[in-house]
Design a protein that fits this description.
Radius of gyration: 20 Å
Helix content: 25-40%
Distance between the termini: 37 Å
Largest sheet: 8 strands, mixed
Order of helices and strands: HHEHEHEHEHEHHEEHHHE
Shape: globular
């Protein structure tokens, strides 16, 4: 594994970036086969893993002048933490000259490297095994192969992102480290999707939604962790810089922005899911549901049922197909929340 840290922070193993926080017992321990299945299950048909309007909201915030009148952030370097196999990194990298995808899972990073990725500046995305809680120790210039100075002049990043990952972080530590590696006036963007909803115009929508709820809130409930609940509840309780003890002063609450769409499946615009949702095959739905950490833990607990007709996901998808009258496509979406922060050191 490639891991480039500040010399004084280099761990004993060259393949890791500090000691693991162990808040994620599932994804960091994925095998190469599981990481590849995750990549396929969460991939979209286009080059962007998340809805383009989400990226537009992030850029709009990033380029907006702060109330103090400082210049907005640039698009030189992106750091995507908790990147998994790089689904979100690749779409965001198209907006930057340089991009780094970081994840604590070695199999996830190996899978990301095989898929590769290019930046808007025509450079390869760099992939590194690294905890989000250790990101401030990265030697950015070294990772990118760019001559970077040390100390106060070391190379920093313009934006830090985490898509459907921050609920696994030890947030007080992450905020401290983010403040070290992010440029002044740079942006931290954290987002998650919450639950899965069928479009209200779907035939038999109430029954289909009850099937999705049965899977998430009944069958998989014993395998849910507090971190899963953080995501499901729209990051309402995610520790923010000013709620930490002591508060992290480099990210002022006055510059914070939170946007939520389609909470509880109620369409914010009354017409469609934010970003348009997904019109997908039931086969893809089954693969996608299979990437959820709760499903992974259910399958670990029921190895004799995993992958059979009695697999919890297979049962749910079969019930959905019956409710659709044999139709094998469905329009689905999720609730989305986006949290935006600007670094403003005193």
């Amino acid at each position: 594994m490639s891991s480039i840290l500040e010399p004084q922070a280099r761990p004993s193993s060259p393949s890791t970036c500090g000691q693991p926080s162990q808040t994620d017992p599932t994804f960091r321990n994925y095998t190469p086969a599981a990481a590849s299945a995750y990549l396929a299950g969460r991939a979209r048909d286009d080059a962007v893993s998340y809805a383009k309007p989400l990226y537009n909201e992030i850029l709009s915030y990033h380029f907006s002048a702060s109330p103090s009148g400082h210049n907005p952030g640039g698009l030189t370097t992106l750091l995507d933490v908790g990147c998994g196999p790089g689904n979100s990194t690749r779409g965001l990298a198209l907006l930057f000259d340089h991009a780094i995808g970081a994840d604590p899972g070695e199999a996830m990073i190996e899978t990301a490297k095989k898929k590769s990725g290019r930046t808007g500046g025509g450079r390869d995305v760099r992939w590194i095994v690294c905890e989000a809680e250790e990101c401030g120790k990265l030697d950015v210039g070294g990772v990118l192969g760019v001559e970077g100075s040390k100390g106060e002049g070391k190379m920093k990043v313009d934006m830090i992102t985490a898509g459907m990952a921050a609920h696994w972080f030890h947030m007080p530590t992450f905020w401290i480290q983010a403040g070290k590696i992010l440029k002044q006036h740079g942006t931290v963007a954290l987002w998650t999707h919450s639950s899965l909803y069928c479009h209200p115009n779907t035939p038999n929508a109430p029954l289909i939604q009850s099937i999705l709820y049965d899977l998430e809130l009944l069958t998989l409930a014993p395998y849910s962790l507090p971190q899963n609940d953080l995501s499901r509840l729209f990051y309402d309780a995610l520790p923010l810089p000013w709620t930490c003890t002591p508060p992290i002063l480099s990210f002022p609450q006055s510059l914070y922005k939170r946007i939520t769409w389609d909470r509880d499946g109620i369409l914010s615009d009354g017409k469609d899911f934010f970003g348009g949702g997904d019109d997908e095959s039931l086969d893809h739905l089954e693969r996608s549901l299979g990437t959820a950490s709760m499903v992974s833990r259910w399958r670990d607990a029921h190895p004799e049922l995993a992958g059979t007709e009695e697999d919890c996901v297979r049962v749910a998808v079969r019930r959905i197909e019956e409710a659709l009258g044999g139709v094998k496509r469905i329009k689905l979406g999720s609730g989305t929340t986006l949290l935006l922060f600007r670094k403003q050191s005193r």
